[in-house]
Amino acid sequence: MIHYWYRRILIMIVLFTSIVGGSYYLIEEKRVSMRQEVSADTSEDKMVIPGGMPVGIYLETNGVMVLGTEEITGVDGMKHNPAEHLVKSGDYIVAVNGQKIETKTQLIEEVKELKKEEVVLTVKRNESKIDIKFQPVKYKEDEYKLGIWVRDNTQGLGTVTYLNADSEFGALGHGIHDIDTNELLDISDGTLYLTSIKDIQKGVSGAPGGIEGIIVYNNYNVLGTIKENTEEGIFGKLDRIDALFSKQEPVETAEKEEIKRGPAVIRCAVEGSVKEYEIEILDVDMHTDEVNKGIIIKITDEKLLKRTGGIIQGMSGSPILQDGRLVGAVTHVFVNDPAKGYGIFIENMLEH
Predict the structure, then answer these.
(1) Count of domains forming the chain
(2) What torsion do the CA atoms of 290, 291, 296, 297 make, to the nearest 10 degrees?
(3) Cα 268 to chain center, whole Å?
(4) What is the mean pLDDT of each successive set of 10 residues along the chain, which is 352 residues long?
(5) According to the model, what pLDDT value does residue 181 have?
(6) CA quadruple 130, 131, 135, 141: dihedral positive or negative?
(7) How far apart are CA 58 and CA 153, in angstroms?
């Protein structure tokens, strides 16, 4: 009897091993086959999910950005401009008397603590750090001012261009510059938020229109993080893919040499949901000096022209597709002809 049950158990083990092993072999064979199909057809790194959805953008600068200097009336009744010709517009204050500074609030607190008639600011200028020593203005008893206008964050609205297989996104197609200095913002980090379109200001010749959105800056509306702000756009990681991409159908990307003049489409959500609108690619400049002005486009879709007048602020980053492939993103509008504008090659955005 014992010998009989031993044989039955042995047979069951052999059968179980054969089934599991066979299943594992079939799964691995299928995976290898899929990899071969992908390799034979198109590279995975050339496949992305196109966007077209508006998002809220919040950026924090890497240090406190200098906008300019101002005169201050001191306790002596005289006007002083202590930082004039010392700090420059576009500098980033990163320390006060050796204490690290990341926000405007921290800077204000450090200035409140000044007890002597000399201060040393460490500023980042281009790629170098320099120490600047000067005398702040005493404007009340034991209270000083530096006479410097600063900013430590910025926010706005733009359009997501694509999402890759690693949940990394690209948006805007151009960098975010400070409105006062026109300098590309050097950021420490940033956050991507859900937004909804409240109103559309139609563009006319000489006055570009814009998208007015509602952005609630709380944790519930956070979509992901922004890691880079470059001339080619903003880039980061998307955490809540389903909240932004209701459809996740990847398309192939095209190199700039494959783009041709003629019909194409852009994707945007100016009517509340992402739709495709007809455009024409007028020119492709392979050797442009400005990285985000390699494509010239014209809006031809009558519905979009009626709704927006053409390209408006907030549409930056709208994907441009031709023959089913992602070729670029909308970046700028022609001020005197809002139906026309520029785009960036998608290959330039994918380098990040």
Answers:
(1) 3
(2) -140
(3) 16
(4) 42 40 38 39 73 95 94 92 93 94 92 86 93 92 90 93 96 93 91 92 88 89 96 96 87 96 97 95 93 96 96 96 97 95 97 88
(5) 86
(6) positive
(7) 7
- As a whole number of angstroms, the distance between CA 19 and CA 6 comes to 20
Torsion angle in degrees (nearest 10) through CA of 341, 346, 349, 352: 180
Q: Which residues are catalytic?
A: 174, 301, 316
What's the CA gap between 270 and 199, in Å, rounded? Answer: 9
Query: Do residues 164 and 21 share a domain?
Result: no
Structural domain span for residue 103: 71-146
Which two tokens mark 352? 């990040």
* CA–CA dist 276, 4 (Å, integer): 71
Q: What is the DSSP string of 127-169?
A: TEEEEEEEPPEEEETTEEE--EEEEEEEEEEEEEEEE-TTSEE
Contacts of 271-278 with C-beta under 8 Å, sequence gap 24+, read 271/303, 271/307, 272/197, 274/51, 274/52, 274/53, 275/52, 276/321, 277/301, 277/303, 277/304, 278/304
Q: Are residue 279 and residue 338 in the same domain, yes or no?
A: yes
Which residues lie below 8 Å from residue 219, measured CB to CB, with a gap of 6+?
Answer: none
